[in-house]
Design goal:
Number of helices: 0
Structural class: mainly beta
Radius of gyration: 13 Å
Shape: globular
Length: 114
Amino acid sequence: VQLQASGGGLVQAGGSLRLSCVASESIFKFVIMSWYRQAPGKQREFVANIALGNATNYADSVKGRFTISRDGTKNTVYLQMNSLKSEDTAVYYCKSLGSSGSSWGRGTLVTVSS
């Protein structure tokens, strides 16, 4: 599967962005679709995921501010990010997990200015 993330950019602290991850195949082929991020000089970390049954999970650092969702008709997973903080600055990646393994997309850069 090919995954293409987009929607990143420069935003002021307190602002919002919505990231999109478009898959080249039906997203319902994958057990879990996830968002990860990697800040400068840090390891990649989990942000949020959504399972086939619609269950969602979030990192503690983004709970209450970020929302993951999907649109099967568009093969797209979204990450709505509100109340952004400078520490949310990172390259954001989407990841699929299915029966044939996992795939990563190219990231999209989010920069939050304080």
